[in-house]
Every structure is written in structure tokens, then in C-alpha cells.
């Protein structure tokens, strides 16, 4: 088991993990955030949220000095003082841009009459209804750069056909807690975690211990990419198979309570 004074990196999902699925509250996890902050352990938000959304949450959590992974790994944002950065904040898109993804989705829907609606098809009010977000936060969720969340209304048979069509266009389909997410095939939380871990390893020139925390199928890549994985009890019935074996802990509690439970299990103070 890792110690708090080890060379740790923590990668965490937000919705349903560090943030409560319904209220978006994180207070049950605050004590661990304080401990990690005092030990200078990077807490890297790894989420389906947009860069605009994550920037707001980062400020609230006082994590703005760390990188973050947005849009299910399709976008990596680095802080201003990151080695080699010349911009205030540098962003790296993995795969296709949002405009390219939207163009493909519209074309496929017209061609095959697929039944879905993405954020680019609907109003802020509809996004508010889907997510429970405020008008301001719904607007931030719609500021997409490299992926599209969508609600699928069609059959399972059509969904399988839809996924094959996306693959032919070099796009991937990933299931999240609330939505399906379309992004470039190369994108993913796992590949983004590997890239950032490599960057930290190069900077520190010493071994790292990585911990991942997530609750949904779109977190599996991230959880498989870390040394220790916390599968937080989710508000869904989807399987969460992992490759980490004995280094996986499955919590009995949801959200930030489960987040705390997972770190209590793995990290020795």
C-alpha cells in the first residue's frame, strides 16, 4: 500500500466520484484533499466535463496549479508554469475537433436515421433538464472542444450499427454515467493518464505511484492505467471489469463518501 509521502499522483473522475451525483457537493472528500494538498500530491481531475467546466471546479477545489484531463481524455490542459509552456494555459486535443465530430454525427443521422440528440442539437434548457445544472453551468458544459455527449433513443441493434459507423470515421463511442460520448478514436482517459504520468516521471526522474478513482464505464481506461484503482459505487448497473487485480478496491458508498473510503483503504498516513 502506498504512503502519503510516496511520490504519488491521484487521477480522479468528478461526477459521481469526487462530486456527488445529485448535488455536485465534495465536502466529504475535503479532509483528504487537504491532506493531499499539504503533501503536495497532484490531484488531476479526469472527467467528461469541458475545459470551461473544469476550470471553474479547479478554482473551487484550489487545484489550479495542476493539469487536468477533460472531455473523457480528448483534451489535456496544462498550467501556465508547466515546463516548456509559453502560453498562459496550453491545451492539447487528442483526435478530432468538436466541429469535425458534429459534422460526422449530423451526416450519419441523416443517412441512417439514427435516433439520438447531442449537446449541439439542443438548447441550454434541455441540457439543464438532462443534467440538473444551472443555466450558467449548462452553458459551460456546451463549450466543447473535442467530444460530444449524446442521449441515445434508438434500439440496441441500431446502437451497434452506429458504433461501427463511428469506427469507420475514426471515432469512438464511450458510455458515461449519464451520456454516451463520441470522440476521436485515439482519445481516452487511459491514454491521457499514461501521457501525463510520463510527463511527471520525466520531470521528477524517479518512480511514481498512481491512484485512480472513478465510478462509470468511461473511467475504466483511467483505472486500468493507474497502479491502484478505486471503483466508486455508481448510480448505474453497468459492469466495471478491471485488469489491476488485487490493487482494485470497490467502495460501499457513493460519490465523495466513496472517494474518501477508497483513499482510506489505499493510502497509509
From TrEMBL:
Lineage: superkingdom: Bacteria
InterPro entries in UniProt:
HAD-like_sf (IPR036412), HAD-SF-IIB-MPGP (IPR006381), HAD-SF_hydro_IIB (IPR006379), HAD_sf (IPR023214), SPP-like_dom (IPR006380)
Quick one: a GO biological-process term for this protein? Answer: mannosylglycerate biosynthetic process
Lineage of source species = Bacteria, Pseudomonadati, Pseudomonadota, Gammaproteobacteria, Enterobacterales
Q: Where is the signal peptide?
A: none
Q: Which GO terms describe its cellular component?
A: cytosol
Under which name does UniProt file this protein?
Mannosyl-3-phosphoglycerate phosphatase-related protein
Key words of the record: Hydrolase, Magnesium, Metal-binding
Organism of this sequence: Rouxiella aceris
GO MF annotations, alphabetized: magnesium ion binding; mannosyl-3-phosphoglycerate phosphatase activity
Q: Per its UniProt record, what Pfam families does this chain match? A: Hydrolase_3, S6PP
Q: What is its EC number?
A: 3.1.3.70
Location of the Sucrose phosphatase-like domain? 176-266
Task: Supply the enzyme class, top level.
Answer: hydrolase
Amino acid at each position: 500500500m502506498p504512503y502519503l509521502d510516496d511520490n504519488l499522483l491521484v487521477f480522479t473522475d468528478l461526477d459521481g466520484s469526487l462530486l456527488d451525483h445529485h448535488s455536485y457537493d465534495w465536502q466529504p472528500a475535503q479532509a483528504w484533499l487537504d491532506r493531499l494538498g499539504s503533501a503536495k500530491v497532484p490531484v488531476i481531475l479526469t472527467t467528461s466535463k469541458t475545459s470551461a467546466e473544469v476550470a471553474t471546479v479547479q478554482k473551487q477545489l484550489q487545484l489550479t496549479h495542476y493539469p487536468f484531463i477533460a472531455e473523457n481524455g480528448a483534451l489535456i490542459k496544462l498550467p501556465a508554469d508547466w515546463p516548456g509552456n509559453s502560453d498562459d494555459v496550453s491545451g492539447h486535443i487528442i483526435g478530432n475537433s468538436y466541429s469535425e465530430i458534429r459534422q460526422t454525427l449530423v451526416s450519419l443521422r441523416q443517412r441512417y436515421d439514427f435516433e439520438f440528440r447531442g449537446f449541439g442539437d439542443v438548447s441550454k434548457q434541455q441540457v439543464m433538464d438532462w443534467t440538473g445544472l444551472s443555466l450558467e453551468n449548462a452553458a459551460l458544459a456546451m463549450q466543447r472542444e473535442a467530444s460530444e455527449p449524446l442521449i441515445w433513443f434508438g434500439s440496441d441493434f441500431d446502437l451497434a450499427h452506429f458504433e461501427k459507423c463511428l469506427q469507420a470515421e475514426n471515432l469512438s463511442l464511450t458510455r458515461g454515467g449519464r451520456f454516451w460520448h463520441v470522440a476521436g478514436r485515439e482519445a481516452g482517459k487511459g491514454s491521457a493518464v499514461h501521457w501525463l504520468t510520463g510527463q511527471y516521471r520525466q520531470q521528477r526522474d524517479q518512480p511514481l505511484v498512481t491512484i485512480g478513482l472513478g465510478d462509470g464505464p468511461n473511467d475504466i481506461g483511467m483505472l486500468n492505467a493507474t497502479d491502484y484503482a478505486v471503483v466508486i459505487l455508481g448510480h448505474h448497473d453497468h459492469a466495471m471489469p478491471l485488469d489491476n487485480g488485487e490493487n482494485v478496491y470497490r467502495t460501499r458508498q457513493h460519490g465523495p463518501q466513496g472517494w474518501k473510503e477508497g483513499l482510506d483503504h489505499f493510502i497509509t498516513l
